[in-house]
Amino acid sequence: MPSYLPPHRRCALSLLFGSLLTVTAAQAADVAPLGTVVVTGTRSEKLLDETPVATEVVDRKEIDRMQARTLKDALENVPGLQISEIHGKSGFAVSMQGMTSDQVLVLIDGLPISASTGSSVDISQYLLTEVERIEVVKGASSAQYGSSAMGGVINVITRRIAAGFSAAATADAGSYGGQNVDNYGSAHGNVRLSGGGEKWRASLAADVLDNKGFSINPDEWARQGDAIRREQYSGRLEWLPTAAGSFWLDASTYRETDVQRYTYYAPPNFVPQRKTEDITRDRLAYGGQWRFDNGVQARLAALVEDYESNSHEFSNEVRTANRAAALRTEHASLQFDLPAWRRQLWQFGADVHRERLRQSANGVSELASGAQRTSNELFVQNDILFNDTWEMVVGLRAQDDSDFGSHFAPKIGLRANLPTGDAWKTVLRANFGQAYRVPNLKERHYLFDHSALGYVVLGNPNLQPETSNSFQLGGTTTWNKRLTLNANLFHNRVRDLIQTDMDNFTVVNGIAAYTYRNVARARTQGLETGVKWQANPALAWNAGYTFTDSQDLDTGEELTRRPRNIARIGMDWRVLAATELSLRARYQSSELVTANAARSPGWATLDVVVNQKLGRDVTAFVGVKNLFNRQRDFSNANDFAPVAGRFIYVGARISLDAVH
Fold it and tell me: Is residue 601 a part of any domain in this protein?
């Protein structure tokens, strides 16, 4: 157990994680009940315990219980997910199974969301007022979702609108204690109104999160926690003309303002530096689905999204740089699901995807060449139900990319229901998928200029697509719906893995220039385990542990930024009829930072929340994130422990169910 904790805290955490490590199972902390319907693994509706592709779910109850405000908050308790800062940005990205965040596809209702500067998706830039649940599928999913899904898929499912009228609102505020740079650390509020009749329904939602930032020494200029204001507004319209079909239109806008404050050493003084960034994301999504008389079901969904970023850099309050970036994403997806035929469920579809990136500094383009790409893709899947015991899913996707030509990604999955008696139910799963990822626009064209911090990262137009073979083997066992055990072995073998080349760089006028390169061969493999136990009607436990081994197969060295051990454990205890206490503990072991063997130390955190019902419609809550105040050493550039220390918050939520 890490030495930075006092002995009594190390003892407590040792007991918690010791009990976790003796359990040989499960992938999902806070998974939804097995009756939950999921859609991500096969792009079709399946019961959670019947899907051939293991899926983890964060449901609305868990989001409310832990007072998650952003997608980052909602995902940080899912076992095996590594959440880390996007370098040089005020945001976070997610990776899994030793793959990078660029290899994880993030979707909203099955449609992609723009990545920050054309790279990794910033999961802190999506607020949760309109979210019903989040589905996580690990391992290669390129056969179903195309490029960028070689590491896994995170699919955010938004709320459907019920007939009648309903309303909900939340308000909360929190403090970083002695690290506050204002009278408080953060304030948050949201409101949602929805309703309608049998044929027309609509909803409106607003969510605002204002974080003032924090500093380990508030009297100094530099702030370790950026000041960030996030606003998200959305509206949805649904038309249900008949029981056979529905159509929808979803419009949203996101606004973010960041302020970073740091110092730059120009002997003999530290010069105050400031960077401000204004971000907007305007998203229009629409579509519909229809079931024909012959049983064929068709679904069409499309989006147009504009993501813009404007940043200004100041030195001693003198503006030194102005940078503007704009990314437009257009995507359309058409899918047909055929009725059952000889115990087979056929699915056909097509996706069209276009991206365009513009980037300039002080009015001059920073792109090496025109940054745009188009991808036309076809996919087919057959779900074969041999009998009540065996099921097999086979699929193939063909992609024609405007810059890299044609790629094919096959997959096969097998599920078996084992006969284990009335009380026990066991499901085994095995999956194989070939995957690929086309280099994103940032990696190929973008000049990531952080000269004020002493470095730039140059795009490499000669990069080749990454490819991989992914193997998953595991199973789920349940007992009387009270105990759920899971285990999953994974093995990913990657060719032409894209990474920043930290060893071969040039220095010009004191500025280090890095670029991206293809690592010839790499491997990630490991074990995901966990458990969910309903000890009694008032007490529930959940836990998960992931071991990951990664290696550059050409050099024999460990891959950077891949911790070998990640663990999660949680408890929900209904102390009184209207009072619930929830604990969430997280542990992450040390990780290699650079090829010269520098390592970031391991860390552990504990979150505590108490939810108190005040009547039928109102819930008050108080919580502490990072109770033991585990915070990185900011003087150590290789320390990637949590940025924020202890955060205490209090608030209330009111929810009025649909009234007819």
Answer: yes
d(CA 366, CA 106): 27
The answer to whether position 196 is within a domain reads yes
Any domain includes 376: no
The residue segments making up the domain with residue 173 are 7-281+419-659
What is the tens place of the pLDDT at every residue in 217-229?
Answer: 999 999 999 999 9
Distance CA 82, CA 69 (A): 18
What is the rounded radius of gyration, in angstroms, for the C-alpha atoms of the chain?
24
pTM (2 d.p.): 0.92
Residue-by-residue DSSP string for 249-312: EEEEEEEEEEEEEEEEEETTEEEEEEEEEEEEEEEEEEEEEEE-TTS-EEEEEEEEEEEEEEEE
Question: Cβ(95)–Cβ(82) under 8 Å?
Answer: yes
Of 605, 641, 636, give the one whose Cα is nearest residue 623. Answer: 605
Number of domains in the chain: 1
Name beta bridge partners: 166. Answer: 194
Residue in the block written with tokens 């990314």: 327
DSSP state of 177: G
Confirm whether 589 is domain-assigned.
yes
Identity at 471, one-letter amino acid code? F
Q: Which residues contact 329 (CB under 8 A, 6 or more apart)?
A: 112, 114, 303, 304, 305, 307, 353, 354, 355
Query: 123-137: per-residue pLDDT in tens?
Result: 999 999 999 999 999
How many CB atoms within 10 Å of residue 537? Answer: 7
CATH number at residue 423: 2.40.170.20
